Amino acid sequence: MSESKAVPRAPKAQPFDLQSYLSARTSAVNRALLEYLPRVSAKPATIHKAMHYSLFAGGKRMRPALCLAAAAACGGDEREAMPLACAVECIHTYSLIHDDLPAMDNDDYRRGKLTNHKVFGEGIAILAGDALLTQAFEIAAKCRSWPRYGHQTIILELAYAAGSLQLIAGQVADLEGEGKKISATQLKYIHERKTSALLCCSARLGGMSANCTPAQLKALTDFGYHVGLAFQIIDDILDVTQSSEQLGKTAGKDTAAQKATYPAIIGLEKSRKIAANLTQRAFAALKIFRGKAVALEALADFLLKRDR
Ligand code: GRG
Predict the structure, then answer these.
(1) Ligand 1 atom 27: the closest Cα is on which residue?
(2) By three-state DSSP, how is residue 104 classified?
(3) CATH (domain of 111)
(4) pTM over 0.90
């Protein structure tokens, strides 16, 4: 073909570099958290040390990433979403500290380090969890509001996801289900509340920080719900397929505590298929964003394929 007739080739779309994306967001979230939280040296230092200890223990920061990516998908500025991303991470970390307590899952390791109560004692660990939960609402109350989403809406969103109808409800059902034979429907009830609610809330808050339309909020809700369910199924699979070293927490706990999980009820292969189908449904929810949700798509894919 002569040069004059050559059809210019469209530039090849670059694959999304999720590792760089996550590493940049994790650093930004860590910097913001340090700004929002009282310093480690603030009196009483013990409680602030305990809060910082778990918050900066090396969590994957998936909820903040979903929040920031949802804001970007709606055409927003990630900096506007940052306080809400941090608020969600504070709630998540509180739930992990309390979940590890002897009265709950009684775990010695989390995020590859000794659990909060192992280092600071049960009393301080309970208080560190309480303080992080409260901190989340302080951060949200101090952040700006948006034309469609005022402070009341934002605070309600966090309160509902963390409250006795969602996160706590899931934990109660989980505790009460130990050692009992429970149905797949009951298990889904637990997963929806214990895991999906906060992931969904993260995506929704990101959208709200971009003053998203009702249709965009619905899409983010669908996306977060399905990603959340897939996330917990993968978590259950990893509990039986990975080592404690790999997970940074005690592997095989679900089996030891006779907990109902997807792998226990329907087997590993079927569980993997269900997680993949849920992720497909999450992808489908993103159509409305017409290519602007690449980060959300990459995150959902990563969560399905993760090994820790
Ligand atoms: C309020 C006490 C209390 C509990 C609420 C969230 C919860 C219920 C318990 C936490 C334990 C658990 C297995 C929750 C399910 C969600 C989940 C898989 C959490 C782990 O999330 P990752 O993998 O953790 O994102 P990192 O450490 O990476 O942040």
Answers:
(1) 59
(2) coil
(3) 1.10.600.10
(4) yes
Q: How far is CA 39 from the centre of its chain?
A: 25
Q: Is residue 119 part of a domain?
A: yes
Counted domains in the chain: 1
Tell me if 254 is assigned to some domain.
yes
Domain membership of residue 155 as a residue range: 18-305
Give the SS3 label for residue 38. Answer: coil
In a domain, 12, yes or no: no
pLDDT digits (tens, 9 = 90+) for 107-165: 999 988 999 999 999 999 999 999 999 999 999 999 999 999 999 999 999 999 999 99
Angle at which helix 197-208 crosses helix 214-241, to 10 degrees, equals 150
Residues with CB under 6 A from ligand 1: 59-60, 62, 95-96, 98-99, 104, 111, 167-168, 170-171, 194-195, 232, 235
What is the residue with the minimal CA distance to atom 15 of ligand 1? 195
Rounded mean pLDDT, 76-98: 98
Ligand 1 nearest-atom number relative to CA 61? 29
Predicted local confidence at residue 141, as pLDDT: 97
* Cβ contacts of 173 within 8 Å, gap of 6 or more: 186, 189, 190, 193, 194
